[in-house]
Amino acid sequence: MVKLTGVRRSAYHLTEPAVQLLVRTGITPNNLSWLGFSIAVGAAVLIATGHLFVAGFVVLAAGFFDMLDGALARRTNRVTSSGAVLDSILDRVSEAVLLLGILIFYLFFSDSRSTLGILLVCLALIGSPLASYIRARAEAIGIECRIGLFTRPERVIVLVVGLLASPINNALIIALAIIATLSFVTAGQRLFYVLKQTRNQRGGG
């Protein structure tokens, strides 16, 4: 997981030239958020209809725009609460839409309907938002909760790898298994941390 985090940090450095260009165009961070979401929806359609390899590149493009909106907001001093909420909501919906695309693929368009694939998608649809929700709920009560073995960027990276490697037998199944399992692990880490912090706050009071 350390390696995945390193890839994520390197990717953020790659956004710098694009941000410098976007600053001159007048495009807003919210515009980029909606563009990234639209690309993710397109990727979900590709996945659902069986174009998994191509979808991997499209998901990668959506993830790139997802990084750009925050970077552009910071560069242009347009960081707002409403923008942050919009970005967070679109991120969650994008992830859910991609997983639903995979579910539709396994249900209707896969040559061999995979019961395991369907089960893993369902687990990922529970685990991924759960990990994000625990962090959001913690921060709503004043507890910073940035810990977690497997956050959204890692989930996107693993999904992209699974889609690009989909010509290999069970590559997407393995990616879904990693996403589902480690999402629940991350949710457990965060829940344990938040409960510990709330007990400490009560004790300190």
Folded structure, characterized:
- The protein has a single domain (2-204), classed as Four Helix Bundle (Hemerythrin (Met), subunit A), CATH 1.20.120.
- It has helices at 2-23, 29-48, 52-75, 81-109, 115-140, 152-164, 171-204.
- The chain is flat.
- The N and C termini lie far apart (37 Å).
- Residues 1-5 have low confidence and may be disordered.
- By secondary structure, it is mostly helical.
Helix share bin: over 70%
Q: What is the 3D form?
A: flat
**Considering the protein shown, what is the CATH homologous superfamily?**
CDP-alcohol phosphotransferase transmembrane (TM) domain
Strands, total number? 0
CATH secondary-structure class = Mainly Alpha
CATH topology: Four Helix Bundle (Hemerythrin (Met), subunit A)
**Number of helices in the DSSP assignment:** 7
Structural class: mainly alpha
- Whole-number tally of structural domains: 1
Average pLDDT level: 85
Strand coverage percent: under 5%
Q: Roughly how many Å is the radius of gyration?
A: 18 Å
CATH architecture: Up-down Bundle
SSE order, as H and E?
Answer: HHHHHHH
Q: Which spans have pLDDT < 50 for at least 5 consecutive residues?
A: 1-5
Distance from N terminus to C terminus (CA atoms, Å) equals: 37 Å
Taking the sheet with the most strands, its summary is:
none
